[in-house]
Specification:
It is a single chain. This protein has 127 residues and is mainly alpha-helical. Helices cover 67% and strands 5% of the residues. The chain is built from six helices and two strands; from the N terminus they run ββαααααα. Strand 1 and strand 2 form a beta hairpin.
Amino acid sequence: MLPNIIATNKIIKMEELEKLLIEEIEANIETTFLYQFHEKNFFDREKFQLLIVNVNKMANYYISNGRTEYYKKIAAGIIDRFEYILCCFYWHLAPNDLCSIINYDDIKDEISDYCDEIREVTGKLIL
């Protein structure tokens, strides 16, 4: 039996956390951060922070207990999506690019912090 992990305000099983992260990576569900970011061009601060928390918890689990059968899919997917987010921050400012983040002015002062969080959690995830 896998240990329980707090991913939101409730305790969930590790396989449920992996499922949540796979759903986030696939970005097919309208309530996920990545769906809203990619399809609606909206950077939801709270959902981003929850994603960081969940990835961090997953990384801690992998460090403590070893990798699961979904490790490669989750690690590769998270790294790819975080890279996409970082690119979108750049593309938003590029004059000839169509990428636009509708609430960029609201988050622009926090982007450096978001980049640091992404670097920290991905470093933990791949080690």
